Amino acid sequence: MLRALAALLLILLTASAAAAQIRLKDLVEFDGVRGNDLIGYGLVVGLDGTGDGIRNAPFTEDIMTNILERLGVNITGEQFRPRNVAAVLVTATLPPFSRAGSRVDVTVSAIGDASSLFGGTLVMTPLNGADGQIYAVAQGAVLAGGVAARGAAAQVVEGVPTSGSIPGGARVEREVDFTLASLPRVRLALRQADFTTAVRIEQVINSHFGRAVAAMQDSGTVLLDIAATRAPSAAHALSQVENLVVDPGSRARVVIDQRSGTIVMGEDVRISRVAVAQGGLTLRVEETPQAIQPNPFSPGETVVVPRTNASITPRPGVGMAEVAGGTSLAQVVAGLNALGVGPRDMIDILNTINAAGALHADLVVR
């Protein structure tokens, strides 16, 4: 697995060398051109006995009561015990410049003890923005992301059956007030703040227009003067800017995901010359209880006597191995591969190398 990871890193390194130029639209966010998060609380109906238990999720009964009363159904004093409904949270992102009547995708997630949303239908649910206003209304059949099967003594779950999506499931009812054409200047916010990248963006834009129209404010902001571009509008200016290509600079970084054992290294990662010894112990405990019985027709009772065999075996290693100072990602990977360890052990080695001050990169552990 470690060799496969090394091969993948080498492929990524080769690809990055061939495609170092990145479009500006993939590096920055334009001021005002952003989405807005929406959230709502609703009810999924039509489940095949996999909904909320009313005793464990009383809020499901409350929303059912409210919906039925709005539809003119008098349920005063009635007792609800259905298993085909589930209370859910509905989330969506309102894209920039969305107009009334357009549709957006929504995500539906159970908040009670429902075991699956498969086959359910979301009842009309208002979606609110951060200001409390309703911007969209969601409704439709839920596409669940998994399946669950349960028997008397076992159950099997594949994927996440308590969460699903509705493509185009929400219709925009209110537009966000924003006029791009009224902006005299537009800020370009870098997704990864970096002084080198910011100054390169400034240079590329000014070179394209042949005059000073962009100015770097800090490591995360470049200011674009719309009037200086002589474009008919801000939208026309941004359409020219967003497709310009830039060679971004970035900090050397090693990202470690401890849950999956995944290690990703950036192209600029370097390691000083170090010597590493890595080993481990295997602890084995075996239980072989024995039953001792009395002789036939003699007084006494059967007794179970524990028998435990415990041993500790050192795992063979490569002793003290030298990792030569790497001047490229390929050399760093080759040096670490020389240790002959798996990804889990490699995580410990990288942590230790970083503690020794020999890892010249930001170590990010997730």
Task: Please provide a brief summary of the model.
With 366 residues, the chain is an alpha+beta fold.
Task: Walk me through what this model shows.
The chain is α+β, with helices and mostly antiparallel strands and 366 residues long. It has three domains: 22-32 and 178-246, no CATH class; 36-172, no CATH class; 253-292 and 304-365, no CATH class. It is built from seven helices and 24 strands. A six-stranded antiparallel barrel has the order 3-4-5-9-7-6. A hairpin with a 5-residue loop joins strand 6 and strand 7 (134-141). The radius of gyration is 31 Å and the shape is flat. The two termini are 20 Å apart. The relative contact order is 0.13. The model is unreliable at 4-19 (pLDDT under 50). One of its GO terms (cellular component) is outer membrane-bounded periplasmic space. GO terms for molecular function: structural molecule activity. InterPro entries: Flag_FlgI. Belongs to the FlgI family.
Largest sheet: 6 strands, antiparallel, barrel
How many strand elements? Answer: 24
The domain count comes to 3
Which stretches are low in confidence, meaning pLDDT under 50 for 5 or more residues running? 4-19
End-to-end C-alpha gap: 20 Å
Gross morphology is flat
Strand percentage lies at 35-45%
Radius of gyration: 31 Å
Q: Order of strands side by side in the largest beta sheet?
A: 3-4-5-9-7-6
Which structural class do the helices and strands define?
A: alpha+beta
Tally of individual helices: 7
Q: Could you report the average pLDDT, rounded to the nearest whole number?
A: 79
Helix content: 10-25%
Function: Assembles around the rod to form the L-ring and probably protects the motor/basal body from shearing forces during rotation.
InterPro entries: Flag_FlgI
Subcellular location: Bacterial flagellum basal body
Signal peptide: 1-19
